[in-house]
Task: inverse folding
């Protein structure tokens, strides 16, 4: 409103990948408008949606992927949960009605997604609607995968699937595990014939340095949920991908007992597919993931040199361009995360706290100068904290009532 300019260091809540107003993405959207904005995918097809599905499928770390579209990541997860359950039912297997999930998990805010999620974000009110799951520890514990492997061995006969966010639990405050740790999880699922769902909604499309985080983990999941960065942040598109083994379990008579009766009016929107297709091509053509590696290293050095030594900082967690700076307030209720966010916004840098963890999730195309600016602004904001800082939070974007789910 006041003509101010801001550097988006949270990628519009982790969805924007290559920047705002990207000429190639703008042109793809305009070109599709001259063809058609939307046609239903329920029983029909659309050329650009099919082209995007084919381009996406060949990039997925799974065997012969098939794709069903949705409009947001939570529904992509919901689809994966339903598909995993029906996979067993279609083969006459009963009793496979449980999921194994992790502490600290966040998978979205639909009923199935909050069930496999680990609470928080105001979900307690919906506890009567949530179904029970087996719960391994969160990524704040180094033995999380080992415990999960043991639970799989013990409860395989009841498990429809395991669901995991590969490498990074973003909403938990950027808690992370070594990618190498996840191989044991994939092995356990294969050995005990349990489906593996990888939730790539937040970590997919380059955030961790590869197109999909599962690639770094050596995982070949049965189902993948995607969203957020799929269109580069332009339009709400999400997708669930299934491996050939899962897909084949649904083949049969048209509208027969093995059919997945699930579909959304805007699933496979043509405008979104056109932008998403061009986004995939842009990532390849401009070697964007190479920049992620370079800029991630620059962030690591700058954070270590400038922010880690500050007395108010407890820990820094980073993988690729997913960064969490955990603050160390001397007492509860000081709302240091909010204060840091307000101070950064006042200096023209948009960040977003999760409690007292300052979250930085910059664009994949972030420049070296932008890294330096982001780190300098955050460092100055943290250095300006005082142990008694608990007064009103002033500045643009500081209203605590706005966007409580960040």
Result:
């Amino acid at each position: 409103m006041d003509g101010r300019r801001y550097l988006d260091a949270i990628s519009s809540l982790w969805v924007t990948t290559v920047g705002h107003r990207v000429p190639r993405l703008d042109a793809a959207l305009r070109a599709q408008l001259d063809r058609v904005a939307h046609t239903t995918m329920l029983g029909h097809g659309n050329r650009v949606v099919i082209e995007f599905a084919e381009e996406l499928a060949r990039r997925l770390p799974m065997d012969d992927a098939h794709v069903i579209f949705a409009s947001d990541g939570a529904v992509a997860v919901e689809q994966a949960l339903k598909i995993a359950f029906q996979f067993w039912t279609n083969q006459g297997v009963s009793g496979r009605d449980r999921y194994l999930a992790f502490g600290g998990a966040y998978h979205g805010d639909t009923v199935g997604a909050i069930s496999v999620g680990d609470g928080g974000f105001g979900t307690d009110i919906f506890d009567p609607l949530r179904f029970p799951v087996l719960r391994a520890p969160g990524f704040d514990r180094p033995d999380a995968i080992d415990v999960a492997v043991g639970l799989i061995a013990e409860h395989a006969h009841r498990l429809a699937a395991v669901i995991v966010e590969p490498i990074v639990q973003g909403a938990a405050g950027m808690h992370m595990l070594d990618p190498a740790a996840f191989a044991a999880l994939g092995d356990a699922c294969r050995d005990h014939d349990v489906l593996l769902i990888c939730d790539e909604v937040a970590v997919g499309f380059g955030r961790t340095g590869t197109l999909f985080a599962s690639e770094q983990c050596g995982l070949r999941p049965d189902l993948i949920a995607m969203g957020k960065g799929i269109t580069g942040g332009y339009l709400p598109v999400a997708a669930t991908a299934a491996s050939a083994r899962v897909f084949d379990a649904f083949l049969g008579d048209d509208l027969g007992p093995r059919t997945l009766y699930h579909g959304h009016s805007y699933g496979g929107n043509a405008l979104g597919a056109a932008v998403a297709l061009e986004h995939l091509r842009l990532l390849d053509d401009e070697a964007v993931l190479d920049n992620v590696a370079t800029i991630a290293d620059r962030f690591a050095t700058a954070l270590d040199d400038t922010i880690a030594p500050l007395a108010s900082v407890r820990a820094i967690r980073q993988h690729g361009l997913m960064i969490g700076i955990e603050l160390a307030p001397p007492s509860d209720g000081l709302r240091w995360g909010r204060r840091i966010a307000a101070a950064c916004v006042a200096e023209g840098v948009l960040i977003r706290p999760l409690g007292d963890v300052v979250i930085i999730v910059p664009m994949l195309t972030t420049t070296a100068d932008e890294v330096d600016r982001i780190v300098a602004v955050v460092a100055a904001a943290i250095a300006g904290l005082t142990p008694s800082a608990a007064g009103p939070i002033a500045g643009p974007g500081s209203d605590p009532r706005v966007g409580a789910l960040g």
Remarks:
- The chain has two domains: 7-17+287-383, 23-285.
- The CA atoms of residues 231 and 276 lie 4 Å apart.
